[in-house]
Amino acid sequence: xxxxxxxxxxxxxxxxxxxxxxxxxxxxxxxxxxxxxxxxxxxxxxxxxxxxxxxxxxxxxxxxxxxxxxxxxxxxxxxxxxxxxxxxxxxxxxxxxxxxxxxxxxxxxxxxxxxxxxxxxxxxxxxxxxxxxxxxxxxxxxxxxxxxxxxxxxxxxxxxxxxxxxxxxxxxxxxxxxxxxxxxxxxxxxxxxxxxxxxxxxxxxxxxxx
Length: 210
Known about the structure:
Helix content: 40-55%
Number of helices: 10
Shape: globular
Distance between the termini: 50 Å
Largest sheet: 3 strands, antiparallel
Order of helices and strands: HHEHHEEHHHEHEHEH
Number of strands: 6
């Protein structure tokens, strides 16, 4: 137990950097599917007047995911670390956050074998699966874009992370690729634009970026 706790210290430090205590207490009541604030408030035993604004702030900070139906109330759901909370930090990325993330992954490498429940697990189906691997030509990507009507673009968190790391090391950032290239569609476009993590764009600009 001591060894696991010692290795979990940096994980807790990472959570403390991202979540306020009251946000962490509320997050454990979120499901993996979207729910209105009223359902989360009932599960947490807290007043709706307190829960609604807190969920909105957590969505803004990229701690949870939210969808915004046109007629119905906003739906909130828990987000995994990757792909999820980490990518949602694109507008809050800092050198100190990178340090905590690095330490978290280093402690995972040193951790002694323990029985854990993995976020991803293998489910036996007892039959063969055909991989059907294929390359997507530009025209097929066009078809994927045409299937949507709402778009957003956000900074590439990988390039932003690399630029910060180079600055930490006192090295120049020599990549001349544009940073604002991550495309979002549908509900993800709504989420990124509404919470300041990206900006809404039209289909023409999507094609320009592609």
